[in-house]
Structures are given as structure tokens and as C-alpha cells.
Amino acid sequence: MSESTSPSAAPVAATLYGRRILLGVCGGIAAYKAADLVRRLQDAGAEVQVVMTASAQRFVTAQTFQALSGRPVRSSLWDEAAEAAMGHIELARWPDLIVIAPASANTIARLAHGLADDLLSTLCLASDKPIAIAPAMNRLMWANPATQANLHTLNHRGVHQLGPGSGGQACGEVGEGRMWEPLQIRDAVANLLRPTGPLSNTRVVITAGPTREPIDPVRFITNRSSGKMGYALASSLTRLGAEVTLVSGPTTLPTPHGVQRIDVETAAQMLDATRSAIAGAQILVGTAAVADYRSDAPAEHKIKKQADQMALSLVRNPDILATLREADPKLFIVGFAAETEKLAEHAHGKLQRKKLDMIAANWVGAGRAFDQDDNALHVFWPGGERELPTASKVDLAGALAALIAERFHASRG
Ligand code: PMT
Hints:
The protein has 2 domains: 2-193, Flavin prenyltransferase-like (Rossmann fold, 3-Layer(aba) Sandwich), CATH 3.40.50.1950; 203-291 and 313-412, Rossmann fold. It has 15 helices and 20 strands. The chain is α/β, with parallel strands linked by helices. The radius of gyration is 26 Å and the shape is elongated. Residues 207, 225-230, 267, 286-290, 292, 317, 319-321, 335-338, 350, 362, 364, 369-371 line the site of ligand PMT.
């Protein structure tokens, strides 16, 4: 089993993974903490482009940020080589969020007055992306009515303010004006980037793809699931504001934007990973095509061909959804049903036996559903049903995600 980030960082990583942060660094002793911030953002999967003011470079070198971020640091409007690679207007369009940390009193004043006399202030003026500032300055500069008026102007324009905190300052004084700690800023940045929607503040775990049950070191039992349905659903649920963890069997698909992915192979591993992932989750969706049986004794060495016939002895795998329903009666669980006959009857049977809140049934076999780009679903829940006609799995996932959100909220009254 492998995981892209530590479980404790999972919700933050789910939001920051693949997001682009333009980090503006201003002059001030707190500039050294911005180096740690780069690391923290990158650890959560964000891409970071650093832009330094001239004064920032008196405190920390551009080389430090370049080495940490893996990207050339930008600091001048007049650097021809850098402008040729990515012009400042292009740079202003690049990020999902501009974060200025530390934000000096001087830069706050320049932003408030709409100046464009260095690269950072020009980028902010030329960008329609959200801006967050983490102020850091001496307590008297912070309390000065000029600074407070500038902040008032920026807050009024929708600039997000992260901090400051109070405590001992580099100048020996004690008071307000300390920059927030990097982890605090990272978490606030993740909150700002979290999509809002009907599943905001909701954690969803979704299983997807096939499982592989080993027969010997080189052979396994599996099925034709590609993971397309589950990955599309993970993506759609994220767009509704959910924090999504995807527990995936082997697929060739890229991890959807903003989704935390845990890779597994066997049904037993999928059960273990899903059991851990549902801690703190409200919704579990089972799109995975889990092998119902596994070899009771996988051979230690490659099986040699000898007899004309051979029989495999198989044992039942645990049912992941039914097991986790027993473990957590309050979880909203959505199952899938893959049927070649009596679709509604079998789906209803699974809904009841596994004590699910909803089940999305699809016809399979004869080239349907498995490894296809299109699908159709008939969704059932106690006392209701809805048909989602044939569409691309991406569109179908959007419709199913909206229905899951609707039924989930209805179930919570
Ligand atoms: O991956 P794609 O190529 O895009 O194909 C999508 C799909 C056809 C795999 C998908 O739409 C689908 O139908 N997934 C469920 C496949 C399946 O195994 O269905 P089932 O009827 O056997 O299982 C019923 C439910 O119990 C499913 O939610 C399944 O995840 C779950 N289950 C099954 C067995 C098991 N041991 N544990 C389980 O939790």
C-alpha cells in the first residue's frame, strides 16, 4: 500500500495538491520563515513560484528559495531573460492564489495605493487571482493608523489577512506584528483554496478500480474495471467542495486534481486502507470492482505446468461495504451494483443486505460499463429511485455526485 502524503496532512493535501501558489516575500526578519513555508506548501503537493522584493533579498538569498522551490526566483520587472521565459502578465495569471508572507508595512501600503513600482506590486495589480497577506512588522508599525487604514482598504477589497500573531519581536519588543507560523499559514491557504459547494466540510472516501488477488508471484485474479467511473466521481465530489480520499486498485489513470489517493492491490488491502480512511469521513462510495474470492494459498513460487488440469481453491473475500457498515452505522454509504440480469431486483437486494443508503446500478457484460467511456446508472435508495441516462462517465459522475449530496443532506434531516 502506498500513500502520497501522511494521513494527518491528508485534508490539507487534498486541497493543495497540484495548486499553484505565487509566494511574495518582502523584507523583514520573518523572511527566513518563508523558506519553511515553501517546503510546507510543497509537501502538501502545491507548486510554488517565489517572487522577492529588493528588501527581501537583504534578509534571505534568492538561491535559498530557488533551491527549495525548484524554480528560478523572480524579483525584477526588468530581467529580460526571466521575462522572455514567463512575462510578468503571464506570471500574474499563473497562480491559483497569491500569498505574501511576510507582508511588510511598505508592501501593504503599496498594494493599498495601487502602486506598481516593483515586480510584486505590479503582479498584484495585474492579477485577478485571490491575494492573501501574512503581515510581519514591529508592533508600533502595526498599530500605526496609516498601516491600519491600508489594511482596512485591502480587507475591503477582498484581500485575505492571515495574522499577525503577537509575542516577542526581533527588535526585542513584545506585541502584535509577528508573522504566523508556516504551518498556520499553510492551513489557512488550504482553507482559502477549498472549493465551496453542497459538500463543503464533508469528507468522502471512494474506492475505485479492480483488485488483484495473487495466485503465485506473477499471476493474479482480477477484472476489467479501469477505474474511470470512480476517478470521475472522485473529481466531481471534489468540485462540490468535498475532501476526497480515493482508495484505488491498480489503474493507469492520473490522480484527479485535489484528491488524496491511496494505492492498494488486494481486497484485504482495500478493506484495511478504507477502514483507516473513513475515520472522520461522512460518506463512503464503493465504485471498486472488488474480487469476491481469492486464492486460499497463493503459491510462494511460480506454478509450473505439469498436469493437464488444475483446480484453484478460492475463499471468500470480506465484503468491504458490509464490514464498514457494521463498524460505522452512521456513515452514509453508496454502493454500486454491476449486473448482467435483473438489475433492479439485484440492486435492491444489495441495498438491503449491505445496509446501504444508496446504490447505483449499471448493466455490465457485452461491452457495457467496464472500461468504457460512457455508462448509464439506475440509482435506488430506500423509498426512491432515479435514472441517469447514458452519458460520458464524466457527465454521469457530475449528476451522481449532485444526487449523493442531495440524498446525504436529506438523510441528515
Ligand atoms: O472502473 P470502470 O471501468 O469505469 O467500470 C465501472 C464499474 C463497472 C466497475 C462500476 O460502475 C461498478 O459497477 N462498480 C461496482 C462493481 C462491483 O463489483 O459490483 P458488485 O455488484 O459485485 O458489488 C456491489 C458493491 O459492493 C460495490 O459497491 C462493490 O464495490 C462492493 N463490494 C463488492 C465486493 C466486496 N468484496 N466488497 C465490496 O465492498
